[in-house]
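User: Hey, quick favor. My workstation is busy. Could you predict this chain's structure for me?
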Amino acid sequence: GFSDAQVPFYDPRAWDVTLQILTDLKPNILVSNGDFFDFPSGSLKFSPRSYKGKHPEAFRDQITLGRGLLAQLPKPVEGQRRIWNDGNHEWRWFRLLVHDPQIYQLLQLPELASAENLFQLLNLAQYGFEYSGEYPNGTWLFGIGDPTTDVWVEHGYIASKHAGYTGQRLRDERGANVVMGHVERLALNWRQYVGGRWL
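Assistant: No problem, here it is.
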């Protein structure tokens, strides 16, 4: 899977590498694990001066750019599951619309008025994704008859100073292998138990 692309601030080189890996690997399961978008204007720390009255255009541009990047994903392979997990930055979009219903008119995005969530707005089903639900929902990927291969995947909402502590806390909470984004740093953390280990 992939997470934290932070469109429009994504790194095109990293996206190209992601596409190449997906093309070569052809995974059975692909998870977009949150913060695909950044939506800076939905941040509580956002300064309106940053866009100088161009908020609607900036929002539309981000949606257009994100749709273009998703269209670059390799076509789903037979039997492949694609799952979309929202992140805290996708939650910015929801919070923005709840606090300012007039944004529908300002953005001049007709499809926005009927969309209940970002999954619908982006029509992510056309890219083969299923929706795990609004942030902070994650998704279980179950092994076949072997609980040591069960994996919980979520974007996350807590970040410790040390990325390994964040993952360790989530692993202990779920009692399973976990994959998370949000902290934007790499950490691998193992825990040994009778009969196996969790990552």
